[in-house]
Amino acid sequence: MTVTALADIIRTQAEILETSLPRHAYTDYHGDKSLSIARSKLLEACDKLNHLVTGPIECSKTDVMGIAQGHRVHAALQYVCHFRLASHIPADGTPVAYEEAARAAGVDTSQCTRVLQLLMTYHIFREPGTRIVAHNRNSRVLLDEDTGAAVEWLTQESLRSSAFFTEARAKGRRWSTGGSGGGGGGVGVGVGSQQRQATTTAASAALNIAVEDLDRPAFGFLTQPQHGATSETSMKADRYARAMAGMAKRKQLSPEHLVSGFAWSALPAGATVVDVGGGSGHCSRAVAACHPRLRFVVQDTNAALAEEEEEDEVDVVADDDDRLRREKGEKAEKEASVRFVTYDFFTPQTVAGDVYLLRRILHHYSDQDAVRILQAQLCAVRKKPGARIVVMDNIAIHSGTLSTLEERKTRTLDIAMMALFNSVERDLEDWKELFHKADPGLKLVNVTKPLGSALAVMELRLE
Ligand SMILES: C[S@@+](CC[C@H](N)C(=O)[O-])C[C@H]1O[C@@H](n2cnc3c(N)ncnc32)[C@H](O)[C@@H]1O
Description:
Elements: H1 3-20, H2 33-53, H3 64-68, H4 70-82, E1 96-97, H5 98-105, H6 109-120, E2 126-129, E3 132-134, H7 137-140, H8 145-163, H9 165-170, H10 193-196, H11 206-210, H12 218-223, H13 231-247, H14 256-260, E4 272-276, H15 282-290, E5 295-300, H16 303-306, H17 330-334, E6 338-342, E7 355-359, H18 367-381, E8 388-393, H19 404-421, H20 428-438, E9 442-448, E10 456-462
Helix pairs in contact: 1-2, 4-6, 4-8, 5-6, 8-13, 18-20
Bound molecules: S-adenosylmethionine.
């Protein structure tokens, strides 16, 4: 396509957006599919245009040399997060002298200025006058506790794991056998199960090399600080929990898609939704806000949740030998419908539920471990007729199915999973195979992908 043909697309789609949506609210298309498509076409054309007029070694944002230097920007962002620079700049957009911001953060003025000035070229912060800095809408998101934690986690543990990505592969780890190097073009999109069987343990992920002496699965390192935890590992686990809540604030990962992607209203009043690995409970809260007739049990191993634990007020699966059901008092009935329980999802599920929700859990694990998690939930599903498992996760797509920009997001996630956890994104056939492995009677009865959602909702029933 020519530069002018792309420019025409840009003009047409930009006009659609500009006439229909307020300025700076181009993501707020409220489920209007035509506006969502116009925006997607606009972004895609901009990306292609950028690529077309940029040379391959120009060191811009999108050419090979520019991409190879992306870690400098990540380093700058890491610095800003680490020294909490955003919090020393007025949130209302009033500028402050670099010197003042640096003094408040306890850092060197020259360093701080250079870091901020690089980020400004990426539209993060702005310099409205000489030697002053102010927030813009991009930098202001760092002030949000959860989003700030997400950016910090991405530029700390996640960035470190990426630095050791190839080293982990080269050390006789995943896909390094068979002479095909890194798995060729198949990485991440519909990676066949045979290839996936070559997966080594989650304890040999790149993050394990990045973190000295880390000999257990990296996911555990990120999320489970309670055994002999130092304050640093506790802080990291807290940050990870907040980062996950921050990720969910992105439009495509918003819990609103969970609310619209499943027939919650079809569940009977008082039905229990067990949010397995539910983190800080942000998903349960979002559904509870729209369906107050339902009850929610958020389960996680994260010690950060233990403070809110109210295990005694949760129904547990009745067992013939050892009756575990506990009384729940009237007081509990009146209290909030979202409760927290410490639980390890590799162990048999004991909470009696109508829906077991696994949102953004299974894609962190190899097939072997994902099967163990599903089987642990099936222990409870088998005891309650009609109970089901709802998996909300990414379904990997085949090349060319989506726009390049959308495809880029899912492929980036796939590489993140490989670097952090030695896990993989699955296509629909892979998912079905996984469910079958957990139990041949476990059937995928419905799949939906709400508009604008990166994740699909897969409903499973035991036949
Ligand atoms: C990627 S986050 C997903 C959080 C939430 N479900 C969501 O969709 O945003 C994974 C969650 O699993 C929790 N987790 C990790 N290992 C666990 C385990 N063995 N048992 C229970 N929860 C675990 C983590 O603490 C974290 O909150």
